[in-house]
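Dear colleague,

As promised, here are the two records you asked about, laid out in our usual form so they can be pasted straight into your sheet.

NAME FIELD: protein one
SEQUENCE, THEN STRUCTURE:
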Amino acid sequence: MGFSFSSIRYGYLRITFLLLVSCILFTFFATPVDSSVLKPKTEHDGCSALKHFHDYQSKCAYLKTIDPCASQGFIDYLSLLYCNFEKFPLLGQSLLFLWLLALFYVLGHTASEYFCSSLESLSKLLNLSPTVAGVTLLSLGNGAPDLFASLVSFMGEDSKGTYGVGLNTVVGGSSFVTCVVVGIISIALRSRGVRIERSAFVRDVCFFCAAIGSLGLILVYGKINFWGALGFCSLYAVYVAFVYLSWRFGGEGGEFDLESVHKRGSLSEPIFQREDLDDGVVDEEHRQRHYYWKLVVWVMTLPIYLPRRLTIPVVSEAKWSKPTAVGSVTFAPVLLSLLWNSKRSPTSVEARVVYLTGCSVGIVLGLIAISTTKKSNPPKKWLLPWLAGGFVMSMTWSYISAQELVALLTSLGYIFGVSPSILGLTVLAWGNSIGDLITNVTMALHDGDEGAQVAVSGCYAGPIFNTLFALGISLVGCAWEVYPLSIVIKTDPRLLESLGFLVVGLVWSFLVLFSNRMRLGGVMGVGLLVIYLASLSIRILQTVGDSY
């Protein structure tokens, strides 16, 4: 990537940018929240009473008398199902599951195609060192789905206790990556005798154990104030500083390349759309089938591709298009004004002022883009405003997708009588972690020993980011809104059990690697998979037992 760390004049710019990222994430999503947000539902909660009704018509009538059960998104999924699909319940449920898959695709695709692209370009522009970029921008890009899902779960005017979804998603994703992904890598590389760097592994495992221990203390204590949440989130800054010092003075991670992590297995390039097929083997018939299949996929994804393409500025050489670039800077302020007014009456004076401002700013930016850009190539000057715009708008779309995803999972929990927390531990965690599975396993298999080292390191750096930064900044936002009071988090023994199994997996990896001279092997991989399956099975059996 050509990172340069020798020039001191970029020092203040780097620090300012990293602080700006944190401030944007905190202020942009810190919507007003009531102190009751983090109080769990009781059996007398109006939404829980849905299980006492046995037909769609009565459930629809009841839903009209209470507030929406999942208020994070823009769609009331329970009313949509029970009030419109009374005669075709299976069709309605199937459509909800298809929409769930679409939301997972949009969230992952937005993160990899737009969010990571903006981060990589910003890291080049700011001349960030590869190690600093790896533990900040790379972790932010890979952890974007978990970050936004956590923010949505904790924040909002009426989250109705969906903090359990956020906590279980972070813990479930961490367990999946550190047990399943690391286990698969270990089994796949058992015959190659790949060695893992001892100091980097010890550093990551120790910091991750510290993060898990801190989270466990918060759950046991049952509440946390603003300063405690800020201290919890700041542990990630300590980790970043430690990684940088290890690289600067200890020689760790000297060959780390940010771009190589995103070149393989990216969600932005689905497997069935890739062009890396052997041209000499694939005959004309297969080529035509591949073309028609790509055309079908393109038509199916167009409704969720076009709105993002017309609102997220992109200035890369490969994807540059002046008409879409002009359209993106024109429609982006309009989209932001629509989101700003989503909770207001569209006929109010405040809403009209916001709409007028958004449209005016969009027209001005569009005219500037027309006059300052060329049709043949993206702009070479004033790149920072373009990249910052792409960064903000990709965050906006990721947040919108996460809002709908959490709202839909909460609604599915009420529909099928399953706790939203267990859906966060499984469905949401798996969906957000599939990118890590594809990327890290592919890199470990095809990029040699160095790729295996980076892949394994990423399996621990990602969960550290999700636990300390993604969850931490959510707690900071909630605690700030009730400052100087503390936010109350109900102690969940089952979540503590999941944390315990997560620690067991880390200890198992530590002991087996050290006994095997830091070589990855099948014993380590099988053991990690068994630990994950045991943890998941116990949690599912407990949930099934609650339903009886």
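NAME FIELD: protein two
SEQUENCE, THEN STRUCTURE:
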Amino acid sequence: MDLERRHEELEELYLLEGCFPEAEKLKRGTRLLAQWKHYIQCDGSPDPSISPEINTFISLWKEETNETLEEVIAKGKLVLNLIEKLKLILLETPPYDLEDKNIKQYQGSILELQELLHLKFNIATEILLRQASTLADLDSGNMEKVIQDENVTLYMWANLKKNPRYRSVRFSETQTGFEIPRILATSDIALRLLHTHYDHVTPLRPVPASLQERTATVTDFVKEEVKNEEAAISKELQEEGKQRENESNSVHEEETKFEEQGDSEVQMGVGQEESEATKGELEMKLLSETVLSAQLLLIENANEKPCFFEDNEVDLCQFTTLGGVYHLDILELPPQCKPMKGWMIVEILKEGLRKYIYPPETTEDVETENAFPPIEVTLEVQENVIFFEDPVVARWDGEGKHWQTDGISNVSYKSEERLLTFSLETFGPVTLIQDTHINMPFQSWELRPLDVNKVLLTVTTVFTEIQIQIKENLCMLASIKLNNKKHSSILEGKWMTPISFICALKEAGLNIFPSGYSHFYVVINYKDPLVELKAYRQLALLSSAFAFGWSKWNTVCNSKKVIVKLMEHLTEEPIQKPNWTLLMFSGDRAQRLKINENSETFSEALKEETEFHSTLYHMVEDFASKKAMEKIRSASCQFIDSVCYMLLSTRLLSYS
């Protein structure tokens, strides 16, 4: 392959890959438009990215008192929406556009909103428990209340009768409940199970310092280069102006000056246009380099685990919390409302809602050793979350600020009824965890075109087959199969931006997205990050007209090369008898292989009557139809960018 052709191919590839900085410019425009739309809506809700607005919202809500649980739940929808917006800003804004002060501001606002929402639930719980005697059940004499919403489910039981025989608490029309010991059955207590379908307990993950430093360097480089180029152009124009001034004729001074001034203005105008054009080209070039740098960060493996974990502590790089958090509390029953001459009199405790310490810190007055046995809890597992194995129960350690698995015993799970029973030594927040990498490595994958700017990505794992549609700048869950059987999900048919979509899949237990630490927990087929990145970018460029798939030979070749199978695909329906061809790519050289998927031995031999190329694009151009090449050239930049982002997020070449 001669150097001249190689240079031409790389030049053309550079022009084609201009779609990535173009897509980034469109995304920036979308983010600005979202801010403007919020501004003109005037619906009273704050813009969470603007510090004064969100601080005012928090201050005003703190001042509101005597809110019922129903009112807190209703206001909580807005609060959860604000938290979600802030989290998306942190995820969707590229690291080179995020300043450190903004990260601190957004994370600080998220924590304040989370803490205030939980405080409001506690205050509203106290207000409800003051009225427990007026809400008592006629049969049992105790108070029972269940409040259900799309974001939270609250179970409340107040022990008014203190009957030592009443040891089994079951909430009506549910299987949720407790088995309490005698000492609690005879105490002035209330039991609260607040199931938040979200997790506001697990600490927010900090933005990695290395990522901030590297992207900041790139950003500074971009600004410096543009500044230097502007200064050079300005200096050049000034020198041209001085030269013309020195050449002026003294005899026709006035006329000549007038003419030269006109010429100079024309020259300056042309120079300014050239300056703007050069500046635009330079900015696009540097934006392209910045985007490339950010994409590379998505697939880089961390050099070491983040920290050392203590015994029984949950490693949040290895496990994921699913189904929200179950806040289990034993509360002291506050003084009850008493009717008096048409009024309701109630004593309000200064310290507010108080927790009942179980087991107590001192047990001197207790005769038997087993007076404080673990409390049996039965929970209903959230329907919208998929557990591929029996869930593991973890409790929150408030002092260490982490989840841990000790203090929990007798765990049993009925998968069909989705009922989980376990015994807990002390009450507090509890969650369910699943191995983050349970679906990794993948068994196979396929990416095939469906329509104009639309593809279908299929990822097959040990437990499931997930089909994802990608259209323009949106993604959608098309279908899920569990053990070869169709499984319905509330996510099916919902179009979302790639980052929102990935978050939604993870929250549903369908995690097929490796992190920078995943290689510590999964046996992977390591590929050089730069080769992998170049492959994903070029596969995305071709995805509108070509189908690609997993090849067993990708595990055989070395880390500097990737192998995939491909075929031209111009119909929406899958091809019944696909005629796959194998291609090998090393980042700067592409070739078709002589072997096929069913060959007995591996060989890098070039297929007959084919030749080497510098890019995948030019390799397929040798045998692609005219229609296929037209589809590739006319593909939307947002579509190509979305396909590339999904490939970078799943890392199919390393994790299959």
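A couple of things worth noting about protein two: Residues 247-260 have pLDDT under 50 and may be disordered. Residues 253-298 form the longest helix (46 residues).

Best,
R.
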